[in-house]
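Retry 2 of 3 after timeout on previous attempt. Resubmitting structure tokens to design endpoint.
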């Protein structure tokens, strides 16, 4: 079955504030979508709603295919060397070609460094390596370019393009511009409540 992600008539309330309402989107296999907007408009909230981690105030989400989320929380043991921390998930995820992600993200030489010592950009690349190893069709990326230099940003854009070219879906929340295949953008301010 092909990947699909559909959100219908979503409203989001945080605390006492309605952030946005009437937001719908539909992504099919191969689609990428840039979720844009200023700080605090609700980009992360939308990503968390799509991931099933936050209940929408109104509306419904339906998905076909597994989802993988990258946000500011790094789901890797900070006390383990990077190679071992990734290895833990590789075994759980049944990943057979773990070296590929380390290569693609230029992490090979950091294998023996404890995760807590990695720089911001290195941690972001480690999170992407874990996502690649999971081989899930729907990627939800919250500010994936934060902390990355220009070369690493271009690598992320290339990885997303590759993922979509092979039938994946990518929804990317970013306050900065990002080159995604198809160039579709959803601006949260357009749905301000
Ligand atoms: N648990 C919460 N209770 C109340 N308000 C919250 C809660 N979580 C977030 N907010 C508020 O909801 C708004 C949207 O937050 P969100 O993190 O989704 O914005 P964002 O567009 O991703 O911002 P940024 O670009 O700064 O990451 C913010 O004003 C934030 O303060």
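Retry 2 succeeded. Sequence:
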């Amino acid at each position: 079955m092909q990947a699909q992600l559909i959100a219908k008539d979503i409203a989001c309330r945080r605390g006492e504030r309605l952030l946005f309402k009437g937001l719908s989107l539909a992504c099919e296999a191969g689609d990428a979508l840039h979720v844009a907007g200023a700080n605090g408009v609700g980009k992360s909230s939308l990503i968390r709603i799509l991931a099933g981690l936050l209940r929408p105030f109104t509306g419904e989400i339906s998905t076909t295919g597994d989802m993988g989320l990258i946000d500011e929380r790094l789901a890797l043991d900070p006390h383990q060397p990077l190679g071992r921390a990734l290895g833990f998930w590789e075994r759980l995820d049944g990943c057979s070609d773990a070296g590929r992600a380390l290569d693609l993200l230029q992490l090979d030489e950091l294998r023996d460094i404890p995760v807590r010592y990695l720089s911001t950009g290195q941690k972001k690349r480690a999170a992407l390596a874990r996502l690649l190893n999971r081989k899930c069709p729907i990627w939800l990326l919250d500010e994936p370019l934060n902390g990355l230099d220009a070369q690493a940003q271009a690598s992320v854009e290339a990885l997303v393009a590759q993922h979509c070219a092979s039938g994946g879906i990518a929804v990317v929340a970013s306050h900065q511009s990002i080159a995604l295949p198809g160039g579709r953008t959803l601006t949260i301010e357009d749905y301000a409540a």
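Attempt log closed. The chain has a mean pLDDT of 92.
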